[in-house]
Amino acid sequence: MKLRLADINDSDFLFKWSNDPQTRKASGNRQLIQREEHEEWLRSSLQDPDKQFFIAEEKGIPVGIVRVHHQQGIYELSWTVSPHARGRKIGKNIVVQIASRIRSPIKAVIHKDNIASIIIAKYAGMSLKFEEDGIMHWWREGLND
Predict the structure, then answer these.
(1) C-alpha dist (Å) from residue 143 to 14, 104, 131
(2) N or C: which end of the chain has fewer CB within 10 A?
(3) How remote is the C-alpha of 116 from its chain's centroid?
(4) Looking at the domain that runs over 2-101, which CATH code has it been given?
């Protein structure tokens, strides 16, 4: 599996993945995303120096994305696996690859009913820090060299 940085040309499949019913159910905002809103968000995010988007590909086919947002020394990770690639441990692999590159603390915010993402957070070395209103906050301390 190859990881590469996302660019604006990834907009079409990212838009489709974003509106996949399982993705919407696991997202903070569970409403369908409008195309214009998605385009504006992606364009803005790709220009933000504190955000990076890594696309995972198998044989040139996108299978997942990990979003990394750096704020105040902490890296927040979020991820989506393509609907056609779910159930193959792709999420675990790509999140662990990204998390292993980050020496600073990392966190993830996950709905309590999103079992797949909870497993991925544990696999990436995160522990449950707290839960509030059905939202779980996962955390991994910074790594020593």
Answers:
(1) 31, 6, 24
(2) C
(3) 12
(4) 3.40.630.30
pLDDT for 129 equals 96
CB atoms under 10 Å from CB of 29, counted, come to 8
Beta carbons of 13 and 21 less than 8 angstroms apart: no
Q: Where are the beta strands (DSSP E) in the chain?
A: 2-5, 51-58, 61-71, 74-81, 106-111, 127-132, 135-140
pTM confidence score: 0.89
Place of tokens 């603390």: 105
Whether 5 contacts 54, CB under 8 Å: yes
**Higher model confidence: residue 33 or residue 92?**
92
